[in-house]
Specification:
Strand content: 15-25%
Oligomer: single chain
Structural class: alpha/beta
Shape: globular
Radius of gyration: 19 Å
Order of helices and strands: HHEHEEHEHEHEHEHEHEHE
Largest sheet: 8 strands, parallel
Helix content: 25-40%
Number of strands: 10
Distance between the termini: 29 Å
Strand order of the largest sheet: 3-1-4-9-8-5-6-7
């Protein structure tokens, strides 16, 4: 904390202090957020990327379908945050199609506007954000694909840019966490999902979308006392899986979907923020955490899931945390011709952008 505040104070004369007024001193992580805001903020003449406006520039059906119709860059250089896709479904165990997830999320994201109408977050006023396309992967060889993803995320992190990744199946979170650990050490994890993803192997394979959390623990990628799994539900293979004993034995907090029924999750997120503390946190959200009535376009749907309102509460409840990256996975467009699953994914990613350190908020 001494380093954080000293570094921040040393830069006060160099940056626009108007941004600091958007902070709330009762935030859990005020000192860190202040530092990140000063670090990300530029001089007053800094021009931040803005999406094409459907009001004044280009109708929604027009233009290139980047995320939120933001500018497209080849690399993450000069960015604070980037949206990046990983079109992988080689690790899917049931319905395929998540290889098309990033493309469909971008298409549906034309409806996402730059100001959060409830929280007042205006992330594009203080963060330089762009869509950097997709990480090239060896789609036919999952072992090589994992190496490709790790390398791609490492490049982003080396540019001091925070990656928000569009999947792709949940396999992708494993190599992303490898890269995150290289940069930040073992991190806390907020994992919102219908499934715990803690299988050791499936049909003799160690890498697929049901194993990333087990692999992350085995490789020391996580600070296990700062891991929360929220929304778990569904049938199991063996009685040893009952109540996700393995996760609990690692020190994870496990929140069953049934514990979330008929209630707000805002009180839960207060407890999760206390669990996560000030250290780095990664957020991974599987779209199948939502009930399939709300998000049918996914590979392994489970009834009895969360509502879109609860997902918003979960993501907004991450405000104040030291988030160093996040992903939204398992959108499979072929199983939802309406596009509403991808639309939900696009909005969740925007909400995640809104809670990153350094975001400016309108004062209510």
């Amino acid at each position: 904390m001494y380093f954080t505040l000293t570094r921040a104070l040393s830069q006060i004369s160099k940056y626009n202090l108007a941004h600091i007024s958007s902070l709330h001193k009762n935030d859990n992580n005020y000192g860190w957020t202040l530092f990140r805001m000063l670090h990300f903020s530029k001089k007053e003449n800094q021009q931040y990327n803005k999406p094409l406006s459907a009001m004044t520039q280009m109708p929604r059906p027009g233009g290139i379908a980047s995320f939120m119709r933001l500018p497209i860059q080849d690399t993450s250089q000069g960015l604070n945050v980037c949206f990046v896709g990983v079109p992988l479904d080689t690790g899917a165990s049931n319905r395929p199609g998540t290889r098309f997830g990033p493309r469909q999320i971008r298409t549906e994201s034309v409806l996402v506007r730059p100001v959060n109408g409830r929280t007042g977050a205006m992330p594009l006023e203080t963060l330089q954000v762009a869509d950097i396309g997709d990480i090239p992967i060896a789609m036919y060889e999952i072992q090589q694909a994992v190496r490709d993803i790790r390398s791609g995320i490492q490049k982003i992190l080396n540019d001091d840019c925070t990656p928000l990744t569009m999947g792709g199946d949940h396999t992708i979170t494993y190599p992303i966490l490898q890269a995150i650990k290289d940069k930040h050490g073992p991190v806390g994890l907020i994992h919102v999902d219908a499934h715990a993803d803690i299988s050791d192997e499936v049909l003799g394979c160690k890498i697929q979308h049901g194993t990333p959390i087990k692999r992350a623990v085995d490789e020391g990628l996580l600070d296990c006392k700062r891991v929360a799994q929220i929304g778990l539900r569904g049938t199991l293979y063996i009685d040893q899986d009952f109540r996700y004993k393995w996760s609990r034995d690692q020190g994870f907090r496990v929140v069953h979907a049934e514990e979330c029924w008929h209630k707000s999750l805002t009180p839960l997120m207060k407890e999760i923020r206390e669990q996560m503390g000030d250290a780095p946190v990664y957020v991974t959200i599987d779209i199948d955490a939502l009930d399939p009535g709300h998000a049918p376009g996914t590979g392994t749907p489970e009834i009895g899931g969360l509502t879109p309102i609860q997902i918003l509460e979960l993501v907004r409840g991450c405000r104040g945390l030291n988030i160093v990256g996040g992903d939204l996975v398992e959108v499979s467009p072929p199983y939802d011709v309406s596009g509403n699953t991808a639309l939900a994914g696009a909005n969740i990613l925007f909400e995640l952008l809104c809670v990153l350190p350094g975001v400016k908020y309108l004062q209510c």
